[in-house]
Model the fold of this input.
Amino acid sequence: MGYLEGKFNKPNLVTLSYDKLMNAARSRSIWYLTFGIACCAIEMMATGASHYDLDRFGMFFRASPRQADLIIISGWITRKYAPVVKRIYEQMAEPKYVVAMGSCAISGGHCYDSYNVVQGVDKVIPVDIYVQGCPPRPEALYRGLLDMKNVINRETIVVK
Ligand code: SF4
Done:
């Protein structure tokens, strides 16, 4: 507070770019979809719960893809399930982000080279952040989500 202290006592003016303003708002209000697939989902729930408490970063579970900014893929995707994941992703409004959580979501994990499991969710939808581990601990997911914030902060917004 030292630098800013006393600077806003009188009428003042703050200037910043539209990108920075929008990115600051978006990166501090990432609502992620209530969507779990496999064992990694338990770690995701633990990350959102009281001990790790993602709420303090403005991150909340949302039950509808139409109100969610982020989807965390927390498990393996079977070929039968892949169209469902794609449809849910398409139902999310832009801008939208994807975190692949755990080795199953990243590469098929223990189902690597299996006939019925997709070898990475990036074969189905675009992925922004990969969080490795089996399962990744909440700290690792936490780190991935903070990296996600940095990705959003660096975005350039094109107004059409
Ligand atoms: S990475 Fe490990 S913990 Fe996560 S879904 Fe796969 S087997 Fe389960």
The chain has one domain: 19-153. The longest helix spans residues 138-153.
